[in-house]
Amino acid sequence: MTWQVAVTLLQTPSFILPSPVSVAQALATEAGGLLVNSWVTLYESLIGLGIACMLAFGTALVMDRWQLLYQSFYPLLVISQTLPVMVLGPLLSLWFGFGMAPKIILVILMSYFPIIVAFSEALGKVSTDQIRFLQTMGAKNWQVYRILKIPQGMQGFFAGLRIAATYCVSGAIIGEWLSAEAGLGYYMIRVKNGYQIDKVFAAIFCVIILSLALNLGTWALQKGYYRLLIQGRKPTS
Amino acid sequence: MTWQVAVTLLQTPSFILPSPVSVAQALATEAGGLLVNSWVTLYESLIGLGIACMLAFGTALVMDRWQLLYQSFYPLLVISQTLPVMVLGPLLSLWFGFGMAPKIILVILMSYFPIIVAFSEALGKVSTDQIRFLQTMGAKNWQVYRILKIPQGMQGFFAGLRIAATYCVSGAIIGEWLSAEAGLGYYMIRVKNGYQIDKVFAAIFCVIILSLALNLGTWALQKGYYRLLIQGRKPTS
Amino acid sequence: MIMTITLTHVGLTLDDLEILRDVTATITDGSFVSLIAPSGAGKSTLLKLLTGLLTPTTGTLQVAGQPITGLNTTFSYLPQTDMLLPWYDVDQNITLYQRINHQPIDHDHVTALLTLFGLVDYRHFLPHQLSGGMRQRVALLRTMLNPADYRLLDEPFGALDAMTRGLMQDWLLSLPADLQKTTLLVTHDIEEAIYLSDRILVLSARPAHVIRDIALTPTHRDRQWLATQAPLKAEIYELLRSAESTSMS
Amino acid sequence: MIMTITLTHVGLTLDDLEILRDVTATITDGSFVSLIAPSGAGKSTLLKLLTGLLTPTTGTLQVAGQPITGLNTTFSYLPQTDMLLPWYDVDQNITLYQRINHQPIDHDHVTALLTLFGLVDYRHFLPHQLSGGMRQRVALLRTMLNPADYRLLDEPFGALDAMTRGLMQDWLLSLPADLQKTTLLVTHDIEEAIYLSDRILVLSARPAHVIRDIALTPTHRDRQWLATQAPLKAEIYELLRSAESTSMS
Amino acid sequence: GNSKNQATNSTSTKKLTDVSIVLDYVPNTNHTGLYVAKDKGYFKDAGLNVKIIEPGDNATSIGMVGANKAQFGVSYQEDVTYAHADGKNIPVKAIATVLKHNTSGFVSKANSGITSPKDFAGKTYAGWQTPSEEAVLKAVMRNAGVNPKSLKIVGATGDGPKSLGKKNDIQWWFQGWDVIRAKNAGIKVNYMPLRKLDKRLDYYTPVIITNNTQLQKDPKVVKAFMAATKKGYQDAIAHPKADAKILHKYAKDDDLSFLEDSQAFLSANYTDNAAKWGQMDAKVWNNYTGFMKEYGLIKKAIPAKTLYTNQYVGD
Ligand SMILES: Nc1ncnc2c1ncn2[C@@H]1O[C@H](COP(=O)(O)OP(=O)(O)OP(=O)(O)O)[C@@H](O)[C@H]1O
Ligand SMILES: Nc1ncnc2c1ncn2[C@@H]1O[C@H](COP(=O)(O)OP(=O)(O)OP(=O)(O)O)[C@@H](O)[C@H]1O
Ligand SMILES: [Mg+2]
Ligand SMILES: [Mg+2]
To answer: What ipTM is given for this predicted complex?
Structure first.
C-alpha cells in the first residue's frame, strides 16, 4: 500500500504518520468507543446533509424561478462559505449552545453550497423551447418544474450531493472540535492532545469509512430516483 | 444591513460579533497591512487554483478515457477530502517546510475535488452516439475530446471551478494558520489571539472580497472560453 | 362571432435577419390550411409567432378577435422537433395534456389511437428506444389528444414511410366533424397539401410573404381525385421554384 | 477484387426486442441501393450495424471481403438525426472530416457546394440558428465532403420541400462518375427510391428482413421517365402495406 | 436496584440550580478539583447541577462566559486582562487561581545544549502564535542579552514532545503535564521555568472566571460553586492518587499512571496552604499587566480590582 511505502520511503517520523500496523492495532483496541463516536458523527452528518438537501432543493427552485433573487443571493452564498470556523464557531455556540445544533448547522453550511451551485447550474441549462412548449399545453410554472426542469436538473443535484456528502462528515467533525461530548471529532481532539497519533488515525479511518458510505449512498439515491422517474419500463416485445 | 440588524436584535456581544462600524474603522486603520497580507493570500490562492485546474482538467480526461481508473481513483479523491487539517498540517510542513508550498498544496487539495467531480460528471454525459459518429469520420480519441467532449464538458468544469474558487481562499487561510509569516490567515490568528475581534472581521472582509473577486473571475473565464469556442459568429444577413 | 386566425402585416426580424415580411392572411374557422414554402423560408417561425413563442417585430396576430400577446394555450402545437420528454414512456408522453390539466384519460380511446398509429406494442417504450418515424407519430398523437380549438402541425409526417403517411392522412380526413378542427399544416409534400387542405398558402423564400393563396373545394376528396390534381401540383412546384430563385438574387 | 457490401443472415436483438431477422443482401460496387420499409422496421439499425455502432447478434457483415468488427471509417454516414456540433458554424460543420483528418480544404469547391445547397449566405450561422431543412442540408453536405468509398444516407431529404428535394436529387444523379460512390439510401419516398436507385430493397416491418429485391436499369433516367414508373410505385406501396399488415398480426 | 435508588434520591433532593463551566483544554490535572467536586457530590450538596463543558480546538472560554452562555470558565490571567483591555470590557472576572505559581516554561531537548534564553539565538520555536508569546520570548531573550529577532517562531503542529529537537528546538510546556508526559515517554528535556526567567512572568495560569451578570444577579450561586470547587481541590491536594483515578473516569484517553504522576506534581503545587487555595495577589496581576503594557500587548494598564476578586474563595 502506498501509505506503508510512504512511511518507509520518506522516513516519516511515526509521531506524524504512524505505521498502518499501529493504526490497525488502535482500531482493534478502540473499536467500541470508535463505533459509538462514529454513530454520533454519522447521525449529525445525515441530519445536516438531509436538511441541506431540502434547503438547497427548495431555494434553488425559488432562485431559478426569480433570477434576480439568484443574482443577489449568490454573493451571500459565497460569503457563507468563506467565513472561517474560527469566527463561526463562537457565534454558533453562542446562538445554539453546546449541543448537537451547532454541529448540524456546520454540516448544513458546508453541504448546502455545492448542492445549490450544481443544481442551479443544471436547472439553468434546460432548453427554453421545451419549457415554452409545455406552457403552450397549459403547464403552470410548478408543472414545468415537476415535469421537465426537476427531472433534468437532478443530474446536477446529484453531482452537488456527491460533493456535499464528501464534505459533510468533515463539517460534523469541525463542529465537534468546537465543543462536544461525543463524536469522532471530540474523540480526535482528546487523543490528539494526548499525542496518541495512532488513535487519531484510527478515528480518521472511521471518518473515511463514513464519507465513503455517504458517497455510496448518494449513488444509490441517484439510482433510486431514476428508477422512480422511469417507472420500470422495459420493452415488452 | 442584515448584519447590523443581527447585532442589534440578537444583542450579540461585540466581542463575538463586532459592529460594522468598528470593523470599518479597523479596515481603515489597518488598510496597509491588510493589503499586503491580502496580496500574499491572493497569490497563494491563484497559484493553487491554477494548478488545481490544470491537474483536475488533465486527470478528469485521463479518468474519463479509462473508466476503471475513475472507479478506483474516486474513493481516493473522497479520502483526500476527509483528511482533517489537524493531520495534514504536520505532514505538509514536514514534507514541504514552512514556506508557501504547504499553503498552495492545501489550496490545491481543496480546489481539485469539486472541479474534477463536476467536470467528470459532465464528460460522462456526452452522448455516445455523437462520439461514435465522430469516430466513423476517423476521429482519434483525443480528437473526440477536442471536438466534442471538452466543449460540452466545460459547462461542468466551470461549475466546479466556481465552487473551487469559493473554497480556495479558505484553503490558503487554513494553510496560513498552520504556520506563516504573512497572509490574511497569519494576520487573523494573531489579532484573534490578541482578542482584537474587529480586526479579525476586517481580515474576513478581505477574504470575502478575494473570494468574490475569484468567483467573478470564473464567470469571466467562462465567457471568454465560449467566445473563443464560438468565434464571434453572427448572422450576416 | 366568427372564430378566425388573422395575421395583419406581420414581420419578424431575428438577429438582424429578416425572416417574415408583411405576411397577411386570414384563416377562417373550421378550415384546413396548408403552408408550403422553400426550406428555411420561415414557416416554423410563423407557427412560433402564433403560439407566442416569438413576438412579431411589426404587425399583429389575432385569434377569435383577441390579439395574441405572449404564450397562449389556444393552439394544439406540434413542433418540428418532437420535444418528447425522455423520461416518460409513449403512454405518458401522449397524455401529457391530460396530465398537465388534470383531465381524465379515456384509456380505450388512447389504446384505439395507439393501435391505429402502430404504436400499441410500444406504449411502454421510452423515446430513445423508438425509431425516428415512431417518435414523430408519438408527437402527433400527443397533439391530437390536445383538445384545443386550433391545430398547428409542423411537418407531422416528414419521417414516415409512404404507406404509414397515407394511412395517417386518410385518418385525418376521416375524423368525425367534432374532431375536425381549424388546422394550419406546414408540409413539404405538395400532394399532401392538396389532399388535405381547403386552402394552400404558398410562401416565398426568406423573407417569407404570401405569394399565392389557392382555394380547394372538391365535392369528394379521395386518392382517385388526388390523382387528377397533377396540374395543380406542377403549378405549386413551379411557384416554389420561382419563390426560391427570387430570394436567391 | 470486387468491392462489395455483404450481409449474411444478419440478425439483431436489442433489449429482448428482435429488430432484424436473417437479413441477407449483397451490394455490389458502384451501385446505388435504396432501402424502403415501414417506419420502425429497422432501417436505421441496419446502417448502424454497417458503421459498427451496433454489433449483430447473429450473422456477419463484410465490406470488400473484410468482416466488419466494431467502429470503422469505411463509410461516409449521414445519421437520421443530424448530429451537427452546436458550437461549430456551418462552414466548420461541413468540413469536419477535413479538420479531423488534417486534410486541406478546397474552399472554392466548398463555396460552390454551399451555393448549390442554398446555404452560402448562412455559412457562419450556428446550427441553432438554422431551420430544420437547412440543418439537414448541412448534414448532407458534411457527408458529401467525406471521401470514404461508401455512402450511407439515412433519410437525407426528409425535411426538404419538394423543390429543394428535387434539386438535390438531380444533383446527386448528375455527379461525375468519380464522385458517384456505392450508396445505401434509406428513404420513405418511393418515387425518390425509383428515381435514384439501381436497386431497391423492400424490407418487412420489424423484425426486418428483405421481402423484395427490385433491380432498375433504365437507359436514361429523368423526371419524364420517372413519371412512367407509377405502376412500380404502386407495387412498392402495396408491398409496404402487406409488410406492415403481416407484422401487425 | 441501582435505578430505584437513584429515583428515590432525586425525588428527595431539592431542586438543583443548573450551571455550567467551560474548560480551557481537554480534561487534565488542572481540572481535577472540578471533577472531584462533581464526582463526590460536593456540587450537588451545594445545590448545584454542574455541567462541565469541554472546549474544542482553539476555543477560548472568555467569550462564552462573557456572553453568559456558561456561568463559569477556566481561563488564563492573560486572557482576562485582554478581556478588559482597550475598551473591550468583556464582563468577566477571575475568582480563583488553580495554581499559585506559573508552572510553565520553555523546554528543549536535553542534549541540544539549549539551557537558557541566551541559547535561543538562531533556533526555532513552535507555539500558539500569540502576540504575548512573542513578547515573552522577546523579554527573556533580551534579559539574556541576545537578539530576539534571531529566533524563528512557527506554529505548533500538534505533535508535541516527539517533534521537539526534530522540527523545532524550543517549545513552551506545562511542568505538571507535558514535562511529565515526556519523562514517561523517556524523552529527556531541559526545562526553563518562566518565573525564574522574569519575575513578572509568574502570572496565574489557569484561573477560574465568572461573569458580571452572575456576580450581580446570583452571587450566592458563585459562592456555593466556589466553596464546592475549593473542597474538590483540597480533596485533590490530600488524595492525589485516589483523585487521579476519579479524573481518569473523565479523561479515559490518558494513561492512569501518567495521570497519577501528573496529579502528584500538581497536588503539591496547587497551593502551599490548602486552606487558602485559590487566593490571588494583586501584585501578580499588576506585574503581568505592567509587562503586557510594556510590550505593547495592551495600551493602558488595568486596575487589578477589575480583573479579579478573592471574595469567593475566602479572604
Ligand atoms: N435563432 C435564430 N437566429 C437567427 N436566425 C434564425 C433563428 N432561428 C431561425 N432563423 C432563421 O430563420 C429562417 C426561417 O427559419 P424557419 O425554421 O422558420 O424555416 P422553415 O420555413 O420552417 O424551414 P424548414 O422547412 O427547413 O423547416 C431561417 O433562415 C433561419 O436561418
Ligand atoms: N435502444 C433501443 N432499445 C430497444 N429498441 C430499440 C432501440 N433502438 C431502436 N429500437 C427499436 O428498433 C426498431 C427499429 O428502429 P429503427 O430506428 O432502425 O427503425 P427505422 O426503420 O429506421 O424507422 P424510421 O423509418 O421510423 O426511422 C424500432 O421498433 C425501435 O423501437
Ligand atoms: Mg421548419
Ligand atoms: Mg430510421
So the answer is: 0.86
